[in-house]
Amino acid sequence: MPHLTTHVLDAARGVPAPGIALTLTTSDGVPIATGTTDDDGRAGLGPDVLAAGDYSLRFDTGAYFAAQGTDAFYPFVTVTFTVTDDRHHHVPILLSPFAYSTYRGS
Question: Per the database entry, which stretches of residues form a coiled coil (predicted)?
Fold first, then answer.
Protein backbone atom coordinates (compact mmCIF):
# COMPACT_ATOMS: atom_id res chain seq x y z
CA MET A 1 0.00 0.00 0.00
CA PRO A 2 1.37 3.45 -0.85
CA HIS A 3 2.17 5.71 2.06
CA LEU A 4 -0.58 8.12 0.98
CA THR A 5 -4.09 7.24 -0.12
CA THR A 6 -7.20 9.27 -0.82
CA HIS A 7 -10.90 8.75 -1.38
CA VAL A 8 -13.21 11.29 -2.99
CA LEU A 9 -16.95 11.07 -2.41
CA ASP A 10 -19.35 13.23 -4.38
CA ALA A 11 -21.58 14.22 -1.48
CA ALA A 12 -24.12 15.96 -3.74
CA ARG A 13 -24.78 12.76 -5.69
CA GLY A 14 -24.00 10.26 -2.93
CA VAL A 15 -21.46 8.32 -5.03
CA PRO A 16 -17.67 7.95 -5.37
CA ALA A 17 -15.98 10.48 -7.67
CA PRO A 18 -13.95 8.65 -10.34
CA GLY A 19 -11.54 10.28 -12.78
CA ILE A 20 -10.30 13.14 -10.59
CA ALA A 21 -6.70 14.01 -11.41
CA LEU A 22 -4.40 14.26 -8.38
CA THR A 23 -1.01 15.84 -7.80
CA LEU A 24 1.10 15.38 -4.67
CA THR A 25 3.76 18.05 -4.11
CA THR A 26 6.27 19.08 -1.47
CA SER A 27 5.83 22.34 0.41
CA ASP A 28 8.12 23.91 -2.22
CA GLY A 29 5.72 22.87 -4.99
CA VAL A 30 7.94 20.08 -6.33
CA PRO A 31 5.73 17.31 -7.76
CA ILE A 32 6.23 13.90 -6.15
CA ALA A 33 3.43 11.87 -7.71
CA THR A 34 0.33 12.09 -9.87
CA GLY A 35 -2.66 9.85 -10.20
CA THR A 36 -6.37 9.63 -10.86
CA THR A 37 -9.19 8.35 -8.69
CA ASP A 38 -10.53 4.95 -9.74
CA ASP A 39 -14.16 3.87 -10.19
CA ASP A 40 -14.54 3.80 -6.39
CA GLY A 41 -13.08 7.33 -6.05
CA ARG A 42 -9.85 5.97 -4.53
CA ALA A 43 -6.17 6.39 -5.35
CA GLY A 44 -2.76 5.65 -3.87
CA LEU A 45 0.10 8.08 -4.47
CA GLY A 46 3.73 8.65 -3.77
CA PRO A 47 6.66 6.65 -2.60
CA ASP A 48 6.46 3.87 -0.02
CA VAL A 49 7.42 6.39 2.68
CA LEU A 50 7.06 10.16 2.78
CA ALA A 51 9.77 12.00 4.67
CA ALA A 52 8.66 14.23 7.54
CA GLY A 53 7.49 17.60 6.24
CA ASP A 54 4.63 19.50 4.67
CA TYR A 55 2.86 18.29 1.52
CA SER A 56 -0.05 19.36 -0.65
CA LEU A 57 -2.51 17.11 -2.44
CA ARG A 58 -4.35 18.83 -5.29
CA PHE A 59 -7.66 17.49 -6.57
CA ASP A 60 -8.67 18.77 -10.03
CA THR A 61 -12.36 19.01 -9.21
CA GLY A 62 -13.34 21.50 -11.94
CA ALA A 63 -12.76 18.99 -14.73
CA TYR A 64 -14.78 16.36 -12.82
CA PHE A 65 -17.81 18.64 -12.52
CA ALA A 66 -17.43 20.00 -16.07
CA ALA A 67 -17.59 16.44 -17.41
CA GLN A 68 -20.98 16.12 -15.68
CA GLY A 69 -22.21 19.47 -17.01
CA THR A 70 -22.32 20.82 -13.45
CA ASP A 71 -21.28 24.35 -12.53
CA ALA A 72 -18.84 24.35 -9.62
CA PHE A 73 -17.19 27.02 -7.50
CA TYR A 74 -13.82 25.31 -6.96
CA PRO A 75 -11.73 24.50 -10.05
CA PHE A 76 -9.45 22.52 -7.76
CA VAL A 77 -9.12 21.69 -4.07
CA THR A 78 -5.74 21.65 -2.36
CA VAL A 79 -5.29 19.98 1.00
CA THR A 80 -2.01 20.77 2.77
CA PHE A 81 -0.92 18.45 5.56
CA THR A 82 2.09 17.59 7.70
CA VAL A 83 3.81 14.21 7.89
CA THR A 84 5.54 13.66 11.23
CA ASP A 85 5.94 9.88 11.31
CA ASP A 86 6.00 6.82 9.08
CA ARG A 87 2.34 5.85 9.57
CA HIS A 88 0.05 5.45 6.60
CA HIS A 89 -1.65 8.74 5.64
CA HIS A 90 -5.19 8.85 4.22
CA VAL A 91 -6.46 12.23 2.97
CA PRO A 92 -10.11 11.92 1.86
CA ILE A 93 -12.49 14.65 0.74
CA LEU A 94 -16.26 14.94 0.70
CA LEU A 95 -17.05 17.01 -2.37
CA SER A 96 -19.96 18.99 -3.74
CA PRO A 97 -20.04 21.69 -6.44
CA PHE A 98 -19.94 24.48 -3.84
CA ALA A 99 -18.29 22.96 -0.76
CA TYR A 100 -15.81 20.36 0.41
CA SER A 101 -14.52 18.94 3.68
CA THR A 102 -11.58 16.79 4.62
CA TYR A 103 -10.22 14.93 7.61
CA ARG A 104 -7.35 12.66 8.53
CA GLY A 105 -8.56 9.22 7.62
CA SER A 106 -7.19 5.84 8.56
Answer: none
